[in-house]
Design goal:
126 residues, alpha+beta, 3-stranded antiparallel β-sheet, two-stranded antiparallel sheet, 5 helices, 7 strands, 36% helix, rod-shaped
């Protein structure tokens, strides 16, 4: 059995373990679980919820490999200032995040220009 001790006032977690004080100090409640819970504690629902998907980051090389060779060639050949600016940023980046607004916007913009096929932006970013 696993116990999760939380503040009554705000639902924030205090501790988790296999033993709990009896009685608990005022203002604390222990939730009992038959197995160790998975996920993360949510103070609003007073229960565990699935952990959010971690942000995906890539090296610039790994990110560009998410495009097909034909797409990469078309992207590099583009004379569009926004596309060229994004490529310049990639050259100095240490990593690329699929959640970065600049990355999302640039990939969607390349799709709008036809440099990548319709629907490919979501594939590249996922």
């Amino acid at each position: 059995m696993t116990f999760y001790v939380v503040h009554d006032e705000d639902g924030k977690a205090v501790s988790m373990g296999t033993v709990v004080a009896d009685p608990l100090p005022n203002g604390l409640t222990a939730k009992h679980y038959t197995a160790r819970p998975e996920g993360i504690w949510d103070a609003e629902t007073l229960d565990f919820v699935p952990a959010p998907e971690p942000e995906k980051t890539y090296t610039p090389l790994a990110f560009m490999r998410r495009f097909t060779p034909q797409e990469r060639i078309g992207i590099r050949a583009s004379e569009d200032a926004i596309v060229q600016d994004f490529l310049a940023l990639l050259q100095v980046a240490q990593d690329v995040s699929n959640e970065d607004p600049d990355t999302i916007g640039a990939v969607q913009y390349m799709e709008s220009l036809g440099l990548i096929a319709t629907g490919r932006a979501s594939e590249v970013l996922s």
